[in-house]
Structure formats: structure tokens, C-alpha cells
């Protein structure tokens, strides 16, 4: 499957932003795609300021409309210092004029311009006795194609996720998403998403879900192949109307009561109705197999 | 007295109670009785019934950082604090909350839980025991500015909160970022000399930000909370940086990038001209 995505590397180069104390824990050749030494940036070096500014602008453009663009202090304190940023970028000279203008690329700048980014940070509960953390929070995944389709090769988001998941030593992935976000389909491609929350008043957008997923090889492959039925997911036994807040409250209470709830497939839209397939353990009735007579 | 050593603001521990905000998965990694003082309440941010307390925390952040333009959006609280790390702070039960503070927070009439007056937020870095702190909120300056409870001085609340939080989080090595002009440097310097990783930081909203760190042990924590029995060897300053002198910060950053070892040996000082100067020692 990977070779279907390789044309992306004709246009984009991988990059990594990581503190010198963090970079050693990361894989600088995920899936065999080497990150050139010149594309590894130390966020504390003044000369990297221009690239970091453009990366912040990519975030503003992609998340700003949701009121969730990341202030630079959050990027520094909560993303690039505790974690790292992996992404794909293209040379400024390859961008059309309108794209250079949109990203405010200086006229004399010939370096990399970020097209996508994947940020992960450690979760304290995921530290084993020794070594790097096993649980990471998927903090951001975004691509310029989200707001300017065609500015970068198709499939960039999935390819960034595929490589990013291998840059970090992730065993368990946690993340958040809005129920109506198109990205929920990308997460569902990864595999069955066990819900930690279904309704999250602690978040700016309460209709946010929190998920976790044990990352296995089958998940890395499926994020690229987007299977109609994920091989690792149980069959759905419920469809959630994501715009029905009462249903979200009910689901949240079910989770708080200790029942397991899993997103097992892509959201399905019919007109104004969006439904997400779930597997709810509470609804499972074990039916013993009877021998054929 | 719940702490086994003298601190600044002894009355704080009589009047306030500690709380922790952490997910169940993270809670097991924390010390829920730092220096023997048990946490009174644990708030699970993934539950619906946490909503009121988390709204009050957001309000505390706004009261503390709003004027400086760096309040945290709620999603930052969730994604960058509660899910990866934890929040530790001190609070007052709503039932005994001072009326002016109740009004300030707009505490819901039916809220019978805690109302936070301070918090410390930190998140882990990829090496066990290494954390990055990103929010210290204390109502003490607001108390003073608005003369909220004249008979109760919250002085020492910020340092007490940060010291207990680092113990609660089991931090061994700490990193943080602050501005050269920030009064919080007085608190940070209580932990001992501060190693500098950056003096000018384009990756941060405010480029005139420094990145500082220190090794965390009980000595440093006790000192931060005001234990007069703990003293540090503080190297003499090589120079003082004026918090308005951008060129000096850039020059110092260039020296750090060239390999110099730099520390802030002690607290800042205020000049007659109304500026803040920060001591800097360049050792290599």
C-alpha cells in the first residue's frame, strides 16, 4: 500500500522539530523514509524562527475557523518542548504564487514550507518502569489540503499520520476529535477507537470525544488503505446520532459507569443526518453457538 | 500543621485544602500526599460532574493571565494539561468561601465543592521524571489588587502551590518558560539557581521568553516554600539583563547557541526606572 503514497515524496520532504533531549528517542527513518539531517530543527535555535512561524500559520489556517488555533506559547510549552513535531514540507520555490502569499512566505525565502504536521506528547500514565513512554497523546494532525485542496498531494494527511505514528515510540495512542470532524474517519481507519469520553464539558467544544487505541501493525497499514470494515474492529451494534446531545449524555454516562464503547467505522452522512457506528458492550448478548443437529 | 517544615504563609495550610485534577490513568503515577499533606479532592476531567470545578479553574486562569494576554483556551486545559499531565492546586470549600471571592468567580449557587484559588499545571517530557511546567496561577495578586479579604494574606501561595505540585507529580528535573519581565521569576528563583536553555525564543508568542530549568529534590522544594533552613550556593552574577533590553537577550541567546553555560543565580531586582533586571552568570 505504501507505494501508492510514494509520489508524495516527489513533492514533499519529511521534517522533524524536536528538542535535543527528545530527538534521540524518535525514529528518524519511519517506514524507511529518512528525514534528512538538514530537515531536523531544534526549536530553541533562533535561525529556525522563520520555519516555526510558517508552521504556526498553517495551524492558524487549519484550526482557526474552529476557534482552536494554537497560540505560539502553547506550541512551545505544550507541544514542541514536551513532544515533537513531524511533518511534510515542500520547497518554497515549488509553491505557486497564491500559496506563497497565503502562507506569507518571504520573497527571498527558499527553504522548506510546511504542508502538514503531526504532533504527539507523552502521557504520564503511559510511562513503564524504564525507557520512553508507551502512551502518547496525538495532539495535532493537520494538512494544508484541509483548507486549500490541491496545494499539496492527495493523501497527505493519511501519509503524515502513517509516518508520524512511527516517528514516535507509540504503543497506546490517545486523542480527541469532534464528532462532526471529517478527521474522525481518519482515526477510525486506524482501528477501533475505545472512547474515554463521548461528551467533554472540559473541552472548548463539549461535543468532543476522547479515544484511545493500542497501535499495532494492522493499524498502521489500515490508515493508508482505509478498509471498509476494519479487520480489528468488532461489528457495530449501535448507530450514534452525533447531533443528538441527549444521546451523547447517555453514552457518556455509560462510559462513566464502566461500560466499554468503541467507534468501529466511518461516520455515515445522509443529508443532514450523521451517524457513527459503535460497538457498545452493554448491548452485547452472548449467544452460545449451538451444534448443528 | 500539615507540612513537616516551616513555610512562608503558615496560615495558608490552615485555610486551604489541596486538590488534584487527573485522569484515572494518570492518577496512579502521582503522590497524593506530598510532604504528608493529603489531597482533599480528586477531580476526574473525563467525567460530566467535573464541569463546574473545571469552569472555575478556567476562571482562575483568566483572572491570573487575562491581563497579560495569555489565558488558556479550554481545549488547551484539556489537551495540554488534563489528558497528558495533571493539575495540582489549593482551594477553599464553597461553603466557607469569602463572599467577594464567590462573586468574583460567579460560583453557581448550588456548587457545594471546592473553589480553586491556585493551580500548577505541568506535563511530562519523554524522559521519566522530566516535566515541563506551563501554568502557575495564584489569586494572591488579585486579592491584593481588589482588597478582597483584607484580613487574609495569600502571600506565598504561588510558591507553595508550585512546590507541592512538583512533589505531587514526582518531578525530578523541571523545565519551564517565562518572560524576562515576569514577576514569577521571584518564585522560580526560590528553587535555586536556574539553568538557562534559551534567552530569546522565537518559537514562543513572546520572543522575549527564557527557558529555565533546575533539578528537583526535597531541598529545592522546601526552599521554594520558604523553609529558612535551606540555603543555596548562588554564583555571583556576571551581568544583569534589563527586561526591556531585547538586544542583550539576543546576544545571550547567541552565546547559548554557541555552547555557553548560563544560569540565573537568583531573583530579579527592580530598578529606580521601574524596570526589572535579572542576574545572569555565564560559566563557560
Report what the structure shows.
The complex is a heterodimer of chains A (293) and B (284). By secondary structure, chain A is α+β, with helices and mostly antiparallel strands. Helices cover 27% and strands 25% of the residues of chain A. Chain A is built from 9 helices and 12 strands. Chain A has helices at 2-5, 8-11, 49-63, 72-80, 97-102, 156-167, 183-190, 217-225, 245-256; strands at residues 13-18, 40-41, 84-91, 112-122, 135-143, 172-178, 193-197, 208-214, 238-241, 261-263, 268-270, 273-280. In chain A, strands 1, 2, 3, 4, 5, 6, 7, 8, 9, 10, 11 and 12 form a 12-stranded mixed beta sheet that branches. In chain A, strand 5, helix 6 and strand 6 form a beta-alpha-beta unit. In chain A, helix 6 packs antiparallel against helix 8 and helix 7 (183-190) packs across helix 8 (217-225). Chain A is globular, with a radius of gyration of 20 Å. The relative contact order of chain A is 0.12. Chain B contains 10 helices and 13 strands. In chain B, strands 1, 2, 3, 4, 5, 6, 7, 8, 9, 10, 11, 12 and 13 form a 13-stranded mixed beta sheet that branches. In chain B, a hairpin with a 5-residue loop joins strand 12 and strand 13. Chain B is globular. Chain B starts with 9 loop residues before the first helix and ends with a strand. The mean pLDDT of chain B is 93. At the A-B interface, helix 3, helix 4, strand 5 and helix 9 of A face helix 2, helix 4, strand 6, strand 7 and helix 10 of B.
Amino acid at each position: 500500500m505504501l507505494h501508492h503514497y510514494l509520489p508524495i515524496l516527489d513533492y514533499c520532504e519529511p521534517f522533524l522539530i524536536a528538542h535535543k533531549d527528545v530527538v534521540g528517542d524518535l525514529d528518524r527513518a519511519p517506514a524507511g523514509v529518512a528525514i534528512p539531517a538538514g530537515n531536523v530543527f531544534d526549536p530553541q535555535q533562533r535561525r529556525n524562527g522563520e520555519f516555526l512561524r510558517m508552521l504556526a500559520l498553517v495551524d492558524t489556517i487549519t484550526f482557526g475557523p474552529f476557534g482552536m488555533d494554537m497560540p505560539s506559547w502553547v506550541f512551545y510549552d505544550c507541544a514542541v518542548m514536551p513532544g515533537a513535531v513531524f511533518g511534510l514540507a515542500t520547497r518554497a520555490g515549488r509553491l505557486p504564487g497564491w500559496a506563497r502569499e497565503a502562507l506569507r512566505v518571504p520573497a527571498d525565502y527558499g527553504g522548506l514550507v510546511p504542508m502538514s504536521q503531526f504532533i504527539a506528547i507523552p502521557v504520564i500514565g503511559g510511562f513503564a518502569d524504564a525507557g520512553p513512554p508507551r502512551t502518547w497523546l496525538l495532539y495535532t494532525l493537520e494538512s494544508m489540503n484541509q483548507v486549500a485542496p490541491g496545494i499539496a498531494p492527495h493523501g497527505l494527511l493519511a501519509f503524515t499520520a502513517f509516518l508520524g505514528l512511527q516517528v514516535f515510540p507509540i504503543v497506546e495512542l490517545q486523542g480527541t476529535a469532534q464528532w462532526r470532524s471529517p478527521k474522525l474517519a481518519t482515526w477510525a481507519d486506524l482501528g477501533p477507537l475505545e472512547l474515554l469520553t463521548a461528551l467533554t464539558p472540559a473541552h472548548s467544544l463539549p461535543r468532543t470525544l476522547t479515544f484511545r487505541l493500542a497501535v499495532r501493525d494492522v493499524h498502521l497499514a489500515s490508515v493508508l488503505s482505509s478498509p471498509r470494515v476494519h479487520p480489528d474492529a468488532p461489528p457495530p451494534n449501535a448507530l450514534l446520532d452525533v447531533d443528538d446531545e441527549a444521546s451523547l449524555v447517555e453514552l457518556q454516562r455509560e462510559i462513566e459507569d464502566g461500560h466499554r464503547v468503541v467507534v468501529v467505522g466511518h461516520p455515515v452522512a445522509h443529508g443532514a443526518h450523521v451517524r457513527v457506528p459503535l460497538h457498545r458492550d452493554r448491548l452485547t448478548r452472548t449467544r452460545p453457538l449451538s451444534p448443528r443437529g | 500543621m500539615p507540612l513537616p517544615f516551616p513555610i512562608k504563609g503558615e496560615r495558608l495550610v490552615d485555610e486551604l485544602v489541596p486538590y488534584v485534577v487527573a485522569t484515572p490513568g494518570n492518577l496512579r503515577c502521582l503522590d497524593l500526599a506530598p510532604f504528608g499533606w493529603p489531597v482533599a479532592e480528586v477531580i476526574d476531567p473525563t467525567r460530566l460532574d467535573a464541569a463546574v470545578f473545571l469552569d472555575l479553574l478556567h476562571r482562575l486562569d483568566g483572572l491570573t493571565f487575562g491581563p497579560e494576554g495569555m489565558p488558556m483556551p479550554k481545549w488547551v486545559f484539556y489537551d495540554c494539561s488534563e489528558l497528558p499531565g495533571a493539575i495540582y492546586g489549593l482551594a477553599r470549600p464553597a461553603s466557607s468561601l469569602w463572599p467577594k471571592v464567590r462573586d468574583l468567580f460567579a460560583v453557581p449557587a448550588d456548587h457545594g465543592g471546592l473553589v480553586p484559588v491556585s493551580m500548577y499545571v505541568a506535563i511530562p517530557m519523554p524522559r521519566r521524571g522530566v516535566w515541563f511546567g506551563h501554568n502557575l496561577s495564584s489569586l494572591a495578586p488579585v486579592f491584593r489588587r481588589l482588597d478582597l479579604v483584607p484580613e487574609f494574606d495569600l502571600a506565598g501561595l504561588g510558591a507553595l502551590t508550585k512546590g507541592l505540585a512538583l512533589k505531587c507529580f514526582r518531578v525530578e528535573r523541571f523545565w519551564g518558560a517565562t518572560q524576562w519581565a515576569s514577576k514569577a521569576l521571584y518564585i522560580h528563583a526560590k528553587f535555586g539557581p536556574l539553568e538557562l536553555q534559551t534567552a530569546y525564543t522565537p518559537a514562543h508568542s513572546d520572543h522575549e521568553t527564557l527557558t529555565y530549568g533546575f533539578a528537583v529534590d526535597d531541598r529545592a522544594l522546601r526552599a521554594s516554600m520558604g523553609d529558612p533552613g535551606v540555603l543555596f550556593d548562588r554564583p555571583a552574577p556576571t551581568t544583569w539583563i534589563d527586561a526591556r533590553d531585547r538586544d542583550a537577550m539576543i546576544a545571550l541567546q547567541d552565546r547559548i547557541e554557541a555552547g555557553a553555560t548560563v544560569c540565573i543565580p537568583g531573583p530579579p531586582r527592580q530598578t529606580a526606572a521601574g524596570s526589572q533586571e535579572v542576574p545572569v552568570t555565564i560559566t563557560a
